[in-house]
From TrEMBL:
All copies of domain UBA, residue ranges: 20-61
Native source organism of the sequence: Cirrhinus mrigala
Superkingdom field: Eukaryota
Alphabetical list of InterPro entries matching this protein: UBA, UBA-like_sf, UBAP1, UBAP1_C
Family annotation (Gene3D superfamilies): UBAP1 SOUBA domain
Transmembrane segments annotated in the record for this chain: none
Protein name: UBA domain-containing protein
Amino acid sequence: PNTITATNHPPPAMILHGLSPSERQCVETIVGMGYSYEGVLKAMQRQGQNVEQVLEYLFTHTRLCDRGFDATAVEECLEMYQGSEEK
């Protein structure tokens, strides 16, 4: 029998199925810049579908993670402080 293995990265078609055309466009635009579907969708949940705001969030998130901060802690703090990198 065929077994389906679960992955952390569902196929894009499955992820995009539940999105509106404008949300899909936003995701595709940002994923095209090299971000993961998972990361973009998380950012969109927090920032809406404004491409600039989502990119700002992803950029700040990546920069803080690159400095050695825990990704989950970064997400919580960005949410708490409305994306303020200084805080």
